[in-house]
Design a protein that fits this description.
About 35% of the residues lie in helices and about 35% in strands. It is α+β, with helices and mostly antiparallel strands. The radius of gyration is 17 Å and the shape is elongated.
Length: about 110
């Protein structure tokens, strides 16, 4: 049995989120929470909130023991890109891509 939590349209690049995803993948939930609290990355706050949500989903919806949970999967997929324009010299315009992410955390009970 597994429980998941998703955050869609997060205004952070998936490239930045994947660094934090790699830190907690495969760890137990308490250890992952401790790692996220001490990681000085912008994505760690989003991931911490999402991890707590996934653990709560497991406990309340699937009657799992929160002490035996491990982070089985975590990934960040690209969402839609918000396109903006930056004025440049001689009347030109450069495009600025503001990237978004869909972040997913899946927890399951330790076997």
């Amino acid at each position: 049995m597994e429980a998941r939590a998703q955050l869609k349209y997060a205004r952070i690049s998936p490239r930045k989120v994947k660094i934090v995803c790699d830190l907690i993948r495969g760890k137990d939930a308490k250890m992952a929470e401790a790692v996220l609290m001490q990681t000085p990355k912008a994505a760690s706050e989003l991931m911490l909130k999402l991890l707590k949500s996934a653990v709560s989903n497991a406990e309340n919806n699937h009657a799992m023991d929160p002490e035996n949970l491990i982070v089985s999967e975590t990934y960040a997929d690209p969402g839609p890109i918000i396109k903006r324009v930056m004025p440049r010299a001689q009347g030109r315009a450069y495009r600025i891509n503001k990237r978004t992410s869909h972040i997913t955390i899946v927890v399951k009970e330790r076997v």
